[in-house]
């Protein structure tokens, strides 16, 4: 956001990707996602995804210091509620086995719940893309919903790839299966398009609006994809499910 603001103030308008500051931001974002990538190999999606609230709270403070935004009472209240909700999510996340083999991923890919989910997701994405491209609707919700839909595929792929790499390092080779490379391509492609739409949102709207909305949409789509694809709540107790949803 800071890079976009600086470019706007320049007499000669240059593309954002010529800015060293923008590349610095993307690099830091990439390093953070490497940490996320590793975490998905050792914990459920329903646990890892909500912890992105750290970036929301961090971005709020960074916006105050670097973008000279005002911290409102509503922002402080929202941050407090976010931290409380994350505590409940982390506490009541189901404890499921995290050793995920290539054969398990193959079975999940052809399961009926995921096939129905992926078809509905593609239809919704195409509708949003139509409004974005043909009707020039660039509302923040449209942009960030497309990011979230792509993110759900990214999270599924990231967990599969990270888990298979972790197993391979332990001596149970999984990298010889074609599904590993399919999921790697899916991960890279969905990430690239996420950056495109997220960058557009950051260009048009304030960081204090984009970051929290994106966090809510991403977390929701990630948890839903984990529930449907990896069946993370299959053996969870009713109380745990209720408290997790409450969080």
UniProtKB/TrEMBL annotation:
It is a multi-pass membrane protein. Keywords: Membrane, Transmembrane, Transmembrane helix. The gene is Nipal2. It comes from Acrocephalus arundinaceus. Its main location: membrane. The chain crosses the membrane at residues 21-39, 45-67, 74-92, 112-132, 139-158, 178-198, 210-230. Belongs to the NIPA family. This is NPAL2 protein. The keyword Kinase does not apply. One of its GO terms (cellular component) is membrane. GO terms for molecular function: magnesium ion transmembrane transporter activity. The keyword Translocase does not apply. It is found in: Membrane.
């Amino acid at each position: 956001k800071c890079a976009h603001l600086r470019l706007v103030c320049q007499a000669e308008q240059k593309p954002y990707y010529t800015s060293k500051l923008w590349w610095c931001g993307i690099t830091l974002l990439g390093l953070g996602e490497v940490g996320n990538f590793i975490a998905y190999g050792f914990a459920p999606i329903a646990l890892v995804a909500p912890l992105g609230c750290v970036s929301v709270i961090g971005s709020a403070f960074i916006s105050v210091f670097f973008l000279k935004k005002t911290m409102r009472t509503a922002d402080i209240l929202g941050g407090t509620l976010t931290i409380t909700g994350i505590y409940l999510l982390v506490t009541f996340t189901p404890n499921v086995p995290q050793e995920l083999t290539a054969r398990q991923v193959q079975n999940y890919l052809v399961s009926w719940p995921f096939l129905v989910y992926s078809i509905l997701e593609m239809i919704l994405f195409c509708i949003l893309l139509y409004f974005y491209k043909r009707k020039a609707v660039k509302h923040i919700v449209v942009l960030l919903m497309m990011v979230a839909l792509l993110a759900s595929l990214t999270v599924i792929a990231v967990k599969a790839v990270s888990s298979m790499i972790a197993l391979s390092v332990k001596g149970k080779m999984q990298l010889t299966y074609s599904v590993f490379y399919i999921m790697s391509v899916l991960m890279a492609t969905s990430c690239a398009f996420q950056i495109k739409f997220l960058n557009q949102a950051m260009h048009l709207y304030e960081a204090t609006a984009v970051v929290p909305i994106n966090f809510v949409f991403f977390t929701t789509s990630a948890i839903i994809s984990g529930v449907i694809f990896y069946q993370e709540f299959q053996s969870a107790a009713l109380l745990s499910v209720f408290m997790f949803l409450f969080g």
